[in-house]
Design brief:
single chain; mainly alpha; rod-shaped
Protein backbone atom coordinates (compact mmCIF):
# COMPACT_ATOMS: atom_id res chain seq x y z
CA UNK A 1 0.00 0.00 0.00
CA UNK A 2 1.33 3.38 -0.97
CA UNK A 3 2.01 5.90 1.82
CA UNK A 4 -0.17 8.46 0.02
CA UNK A 5 -3.27 6.36 0.63
CA UNK A 6 -3.13 6.73 4.43
CA UNK A 7 -4.01 10.48 4.52
CA UNK A 8 -6.44 10.08 1.61
CA UNK A 9 -8.28 7.30 3.42
CA UNK A 10 -8.19 9.31 6.66
CA UNK A 11 -9.74 12.34 4.96
CA UNK A 12 -12.22 10.11 3.17
CA UNK A 13 -13.31 8.44 6.42
CA UNK A 14 -13.69 11.83 8.10
CA UNK A 15 -15.73 13.17 5.19
CA UNK A 16 -17.99 10.11 5.21
CA UNK A 17 -18.48 10.47 8.97
CA UNK A 18 -19.44 14.15 8.63
CA UNK A 19 -21.90 13.54 5.78
CA UNK A 20 -23.30 10.50 7.56
CA UNK A 21 -23.86 12.57 10.70
CA UNK A 22 -25.61 15.30 8.74
CA UNK A 23 -27.76 12.74 6.94
CA UNK A 24 -28.72 10.97 10.19
CA UNK A 25 -29.55 14.27 11.89
CA UNK A 26 -31.83 15.26 9.01
CA UNK A 27 -33.40 11.80 8.91
CA UNK A 28 -34.13 11.85 12.66
CA UNK A 29 -35.63 15.34 12.37
CA UNK A 30 -37.86 14.12 9.55
CA UNK A 31 -38.98 11.10 11.57
CA UNK A 32 -39.72 13.29 14.59
CA UNK A 33 -41.83 15.67 12.48
CA UNK A 34 -43.67 12.69 10.99
CA UNK A 35 -44.51 11.37 14.47
CA UNK A 36 -45.67 14.83 15.59
CA UNK A 37 -48.05 15.05 12.63
CA UNK A 38 -49.40 11.57 13.31
CA UNK A 39 -49.93 12.45 16.98
CA UNK A 40 -51.79 15.61 15.95
CA UNK A 41 -54.04 13.63 13.62
CA UNK A 42 -54.77 11.08 16.35
CA UNK A 43 -55.62 13.87 18.79
CA UNK A 44 -58.03 15.44 16.28
CA UNK A 45 -59.71 12.09 15.70
CA UNK A 46 -60.02 11.53 19.44
CA UNK A 47 -61.68 14.93 19.80
CA UNK A 48 -64.13 14.07 17.02
CA UNK A 49 -64.96 10.75 18.67
CA UNK A 50 -65.43 12.49 22.03
CA UNK A 51 -67.85 14.99 20.50
CA UNK A 52 -69.78 12.22 18.77
CA UNK A 53 -69.91 10.23 22.01
CA UNK A 54 -71.25 13.28 23.86
CA UNK A 55 -74.02 13.74 21.27
CA UNK A 56 -74.97 10.07 21.53
CA UNK A 57 -74.99 10.24 25.34
CA UNK A 58 -77.34 13.24 25.18
CA UNK A 59 -79.69 11.34 22.90
CA UNK A 60 -79.64 8.31 25.20
CA UNK A 61 -80.44 10.55 28.19
CA UNK A 62 -83.46 11.92 26.32
CA UNK A 63 -84.60 8.42 25.40
CA UNK A 64 -84.17 7.25 29.00
CA UNK A 65 -86.19 10.18 30.24
CA UNK A 66 -88.94 9.44 27.72
CA UNK A 67 -88.95 5.72 28.56
CA UNK A 68 -89.19 6.35 32.31
CA UNK A 69 -91.57 9.33 32.19
CA UNK A 70 -95.09 8.34 33.15
CA UNK A 71 -96.56 11.82 32.88
CA UNK A 72 -99.52 12.80 30.73
CA UNK A 73 -97.47 15.15 28.57
CA UNK A 74 -95.24 12.40 27.15
CA UNK A 75 -96.59 12.72 23.61
CA UNK A 76 -96.13 16.52 23.76
CA UNK A 77 -92.46 16.09 24.70
CA UNK A 78 -91.94 13.60 21.87
CA UNK A 79 -93.42 16.06 19.40
CA UNK A 80 -91.20 18.84 20.75
CA UNK A 81 -88.15 16.63 20.30
CA UNK A 82 -89.14 15.87 16.72
CA UNK A 83 -89.34 19.59 16.00
CA UNK A 84 -85.81 20.25 17.31
CA UNK A 85 -83.04 20.33 14.68
CA UNK A 86 -80.38 17.62 14.89
CA UNK A 87 -76.78 18.68 15.57
Amino acid sequence: MSPIWVPVLGILCGTIAIFGGVFLKAWFALQQRKMELEAQMVAEKAAQYAAQTERLEQRVRVLERIATDKGADLSDEIEQLRDQPLN
